[in-house]
Amino acid sequence: MITVKTISDLRQVRADLPYQVGLVPTMGFLHGGHLSLVDKAREECASVVASIFVNPTQFGPKEDFGAYPRDIPQDLKLLEQHGVDVVWIPETEQMYPPGFQTWVKVEELSRHLEGEMRPGHFQGVTTVVTKLFTAVQPDKAYFGQKDAQQSVVIKRMVTDLNLPVEIVVCPIKREPDGLAMSSRNVYLNPDERKAAPVLIRALKKAENAFLHGANDAEQLREIMIETIENESLASVQYVSCANPDTLEELTGSIQRGLLSMAVNFRKTRLIDNVLIGK
Amino acid sequence: MITVKTISDLRQVRADLPYQVGLVPTMGFLHGGHLSLVDKAREECASVVASIFVNPTQFGPKEDFGAYPRDIPQDLKLLEQHGVDVVWIPETEQMYPPGFQTWVKVEELSRHLEGEMRPGHFQGVTTVVTKLFTAVQPDKAYFGQKDAQQSVVIKRMVTDLNLPVEIVVCPIKREPDGLAMSSRNVYLNPDERKAAPVLIRALKKAENAFLHGANDAEQLREIMIETIENESLASVQYVSCANPDTLEELTGSIQRGLLSMAVNFRKTRLIDNVLIGK
User: Are strands B2-4 and B21-26 parallel, antiparallel or unpaired?
Assistant: First the structure.
């Protein structure tokens, strides 16, 4: 496994990688979710590149950029174990040179859900992903369904900019009790950790209701809110039953939908989602 | 010379082009200015690609997108004569697919001068240029100094997005009477055409004053305004003496500057510029 930092080193290494090249972009502090992306890339591609970059521009000024967990030595060990060929650890000064002022923006899709709660978040994501794609020139890139909106936004960006990369979205990986794996789960104290599966419980409860005929979007949102509100440590930031393509909130009876939510546990914000219908 | 329309055809042809590949992006209706870019690319690169695309998103709603002059057969003849290897004529539907909503924006530099007069113009330019670069993957790309701000904005974008392309800016080509070559010059009626060299006269007058010790930015702007106002068919939209790097308007005594202006002749808007100092 080769580790590079500068873009010029990356380009040099990239030039010799056999086709196809799969990229797994990460912010490090890797868990089973990330590793499932690596495994999928390893299965599908001749070459696997992983990037580790805690991208400052996708964090709001009051968010957890400084506190975001980091453990590069452990990450490198895991990536090597999972057969990654190249790890790129970009330097912030090269990603955001002095005077930086160029942003890639996906307009409508970035306005909903996470974008509404985290202004500027997707502008940071789409800009850094464009830069990762431009530097690595992957044939495929792997993202997790956990960040459902992110995948929709990035797919739109790839279409709109005609980027020659296929976006592969992999299923959410969960802890044995159903909590979606996230680097931010380490923020939870033991009580919060115990309460955190309330997100998937709420999603599953709405999904079950839907499977048993409750197909009214508002009712499904109410089921989720009610479930979360029964958990005293949890407080709902939003719940959503949205069109999976446009991310617009649905009303009335639905045939398919993206159920999603953001829930706060004191200072820890967790998200989760489930796709329902066909 | 090969002519392609779709991005997939372009990519196929591109894959076989010997290094280095030079790109000359144009909106067609080619004149000596464009051809000087082609000649420069031909001189410096093993392969020369030219694109012809009247990019709708860089025109304002009240601007001349519909009226913009077009003559593809003549363009192809000229490009062939000047030794271009590949001409790419993108289709609007492929450049702007249904639901298109992704924009590349260079923020501060796009706000001044042309950007102030033409809101959204540079967002259209930087988005389409990103797409041209992504599709063609040129090693070098050639732009004219006539659109001085455009070159500054695109260079910033290339730095910020770490695009692997070198931007080459070529000098303004002028008619025998000094009028900067422009596809829009055909809009001028004979009287206006006769009056149009007032732009370069005004710029030269300010430059001469500067060379003779008049280094006050405000005074230089006044010289330019006065010259234009003496021409009854011309009306000033703006004159500027700006920092050539930041494009911010200068005040007080200066050592170097970008003198630039936009001048209206009835419905025809002309721009020109001169760099002064070192």
Answer: unpaired
Nearest-by-Cβ selection for A131 from B7, B105, B162 = B162
Where residue A135 sits, what CATH number does that domain have?
Answer: 3.40.50.620
Please check whether residue B276 lies inside any domain of the structure.
no
Which mean pLDDT values do the consecutive 10-residue runs of chain A (278 residues) have? Answer: 98 98 98 98 98 98 96 98 98 97 98 97 98 98 98 98 98 98 98 98 98 98 98 98 98 98 97 97
Contact B102 A157 (CB under 8 A): yes
Pair B17, B126 in one domain: yes
Query: Are A98 and A203 found together in one domain?
Result: no
Interchain pair B163, A105: CB under 8 A? no
Whole-number Cα distances in Å, A66 to A5, A61, A189, B87, B233: 21, 10, 19, 49, 60
Same domain, B117 and B76: yes
Q: Which sequence positions of B are flagged as catalytic?
A: 34
Q: What is the pLDDT of residue B278?
A: 87
| A136 touching B (Cβ < 8 Å) | no
Closest by Cβ to B134, choosing from A97, A102, A163: A163
In terms of residue numbers, what domain contains A28? 2-170
A157-169 in b/e form (b: 16+ CB < 10 A) is bbbbbbbbbebbb
